[in-house]
# Entry
Amino acid sequence: MSAASVSAKPPRTERKTGRRGVVPRRPSVLGLRVRRVTIALLRALAIFVPVFLVGTFVTYLLGFISGLSPAHLQLGESATPEAVTRIEHEWGLDRPFLVRYVSWLTALGRGDLGTSWANGQPIGKLLAGRAAVSLSIAGLALVVGVVSGCVLGTVAALFQTSWIDRAITAFTAFISVIPSFVVGVGLVVVFAVTWRLLPSAGYIPIDEGVGLWLSHLLLPALALSFDTTADVARQLRVGLVSAYRENYVTGAALRGLSDRRIFFVHVLPNGIAPMLTVLGMKFPNLLGGAVVTEAIFGLSGYGRFASDSALRGDVPAVQGVLVVSIVLVVAFNVLVNTILNRLIPSSGRGV
# Structure
């Protein structure tokens, strides 16, 4: 064997093969979670920003076309054209519409809801205490409606086609058609006047005692919760009954899985979608229903402030109420959609 043959380099096929056989590095678990959270936040912003911009534009446009002016609130019948012009210039109402809207929207970005025409106070300050009342009532009504509706809907689905199912269906149909003000008056007559178990009016902040806070909120929250209870119960029953008829549930039963495991693992996660969908529309109804309920129970809340501001013609106050409502409603719907996509990923793909 010659020295030339010994010193000859072997072909580089192994190095090429090695490069081709390199397994690509998989992303870490933390990286996947960060990516999912980022995608979820981007989807939420993609929903929130357009709805917020359209909602605020329509809100400001309605105030513009109303033709109302702070001069009529401050001057009354003694308003002269010169005084009206001076006051409108002070409030910047003599500027073009788009300039005023952009200025107002920029102030909203800083958290400034504007100033009331009626008393010159910041609207955010006026809404702070009243929003706590309304959000407490709506939040408690939502909790009561969801819990009671889930119990009724689950029981009706577990005993479908039985007398229990028919009784729950009839009960939910009955309470869904009763107006909240009728329920409120009836609750006051029974629990406050006749039995004297709960106060009939007023509001106590939570920092003065959770018991007192709940006792003053329970009746208005119950009055608002009837419609939520009925809708949640009916939609949950429909979803659970439909899930029970799927092939994977039949297969799980044939494999010998227990009824409890079949319900919590296979039926409930797949049958809860209709209930979550209708739940996203309940929060706006609760905020809207708070206007009548607050009047019945003597509560100075968010809805009553909106009603009084509209009757006075205080346009900035009404606009501030509507902006807060838009933010709350859109944020709640984004939260519900996020939970729905988490439980049922196919719903986010439109499947």
